[in-house]
Design brief:
By secondary structure, the chain is of the alpha+beta class. It is 25% helix and 26% strand. The protein is globular. Bound molecules: fe (ii) ion.
C-alpha cells in the first residue's frame, strides 16, 4: 500500500470514529510503533480538520520490564510513570494507540477522562480485510444485549470443556473496530464481545483442542490442554508440550492472579480467517478473536472492567467448535451462532 492509500484507509477508519474539525487527536507511539501508521494517522486527522500531534515514548527503563517475558506481558508500558504524557492524553478527544496500552491502569485513566481510544497494531493487510462495518457493529451490540441480561454463562465442547460462569457483576464490553463514543475504547479490527466472571464464580474444565489458539504465544495448540478451574482460578494445567509451555509461562510471573479467569465471550466476524497467524506472524491474533462462532477464554486482569486484578500475566485462548449458552439459551452451538440478529 502506498502512503497515500494508507492515509485514505486511516481516514475512512477515523470517519467511522467521527474525528472532526475542532477536535484534538493524540497519536501515541512507542519504540515498536509503525512509522507508516504514525504518518497515516496524522495525515488522516489533518484531512478531517482535527488538530493532531504525536507523543513518542522511549522503551521502559532497563529493569522495569518483567524480565524474560519476550513481550508476553501486559499492563506495564512505556507510558508507565510518564505522568505528563498521561495528563496530556487525558485532555485529548481521541487517542490513537499505536503502542499497546490495553490492560494498563493508564488506559483506564484516559478513558475515564472521556477520551475515545482506538488501538491500531495489526498489519495493514488485516486492517483492510477486516475493515469495520456498521452492520457488524449492530450484530455485536445485539450480542451484548443478551449478555448483559445473563446471570449464567456456560461453555461446552465435544472435546470435554464444561465451564460454568456466574456473570453480571462486571460490564459487557463490545469490540467492533471503531469508536464514536466518548470514554469508549476499541481495537481496529474487531468483531466480538465479552464480560468477566463474578469474583470466584467460575468452576469446571476447559479443554483446548488441536488448532485452538494461545495468544501471546501466537501458537496453535498441537495437543489438547485441560485446564481445571475452581472458584475463579485455574488450579491444574494438564497435557503435552503446549500445556507445559503454558504452565511454565504462567508460573514465571510469580503472581497467583495470573491464574484467574479473565474475559470470556464470542466472535461474530465471518470475514476473519482462522489460519491468519500462519501467514501474518506479526499479527496479535485479531482474526482468531473475531472469528465467526469462536468462544474465547482468557486468564489474568480485570482492571478495564472496573475490577482490581492488575496482573501482567494475560492469555487469550479463542476456541473452535465450542458451544456457549446464556441462562440455558444457546448463543453459539458447535461454533455456529444461533440468534438470528447476530448472524451475517
Ligand atoms: Fe485479552
Amino acid at each position: 500500500m502506498t502512503p497515500e492509500e494508507l492515509a485514505a484507509l486511516f481516514r475512512a477508519e477515523f470517519e467511522l470514529c467521527r474525528v472532526h474539525e475542532g477536535e484534538t487527536v493524540v497519536v501515541l507511539a512507542g519504540p515498536h510503533s509503525s512509522p507508516a501508521y504514525i504518518q497515516a494517522s496524522i495525515a488522516a486527522c489533518r484531512a478531517l480538520g482535527a488538530q493532531v500531534f504525536e507523543i513518542m515514548l522511549p522503551s521502559l527503563p532497563a529493569g522495569q520490564d518483567p524480565g524474560q517475558k519476550g513481550g508476553t506481558f501486559v499492563g506495564r508500558t512505556p507510558l508507565t510513570g510518564q505522568r505528563v504524557a498521561l495528563e496530556t492524553l487525558k485532555k485529548a478527544d481521541f487517542v490513537v494507540d499505536l503502542m499497546f496500552l490495553l490492560h494498563s491502569p493508564e488506559q483506564v485513566e484516559i478513558l475515564r477522562a472521556g477520551a475515545r481510544m482506538l488501538l491500531v497494531v495489526e498489519p495493514v493487510e488485516i486492517l483492510a480485510r477486516l475493515f469495520p462495518t456498521e452492520p457488524l457493529r449492530r450484530r455485536v451490540e445485539a450480542g451484548s444485549e443478551r449478555l448483559r441480561k445473563a446471570r449464567e454463562l456456560r461453555v461446552t465442547s465435544p472435546a470435554g470443556t464444561d465451564l460454568v460462569i456466574a456473570v453480571g457483576d462486571y460490564p459487557v464490553i463490545t469490540q467492533y473496530g471503531y469508536t464514536d463514543t466518548p470514554g469508549r475504547w476499541d481495537h481496529w479490527p474487531s468483531g466480538f464481545l465479552y464480560t468477566w466472571p463474578n469474583e470466584g464464580g467460575t468452576t469446571g474444565r476447559v479443554v483446548l483442542s488441536t488448532g485452538d489458539l494461545i495468544w501471546p504465544f501466537n501458537r496453535y495448540v498441537s495437543q489438547p490442554i485441560t485446564l481445571t478451574v475452581k472458584d475463579g482460578y485455574i488450579r491444574k494445567i494438564e497435557g503435552g508440550l503446549d500445556a507445559l509451555l503454558l504452565r511454565q509461562q504462567l508460573e514465571s510471573f510469580r503472581d497467583p492472579e495470573g491464574f484467574a479467569v479473565s474475559h470470556i465471550g464470542w466472535g461474530l466476524d465471518e470475514r476473519a480467517q482462522w489460519p491468519a497467524l500462519v501467514f501474518e506472524t506479526r499479527s496479535c491474533g485479531m482474526d482468531a478473536r473475531s472469528y465467526y462462532g469462536n468462544v474465547q477464554f482468557s486468564t489474568g486482569p480485570n482492571t478495564e472492567a472496573g475490577g482490581t486484578r492488575h496482573t501482567l500475566a494475560h492469555f487469550d485462548m479463542p476456541m473452535l467448535g465450542s458451544s456457549l449458552a446464556l441462562d440455558g439459551e444457546p448463543v453459539v452451538q458447535d461454533g455456529r451462532l444461533v440468534p438470528e440478529d447476530q448472524r451475517p
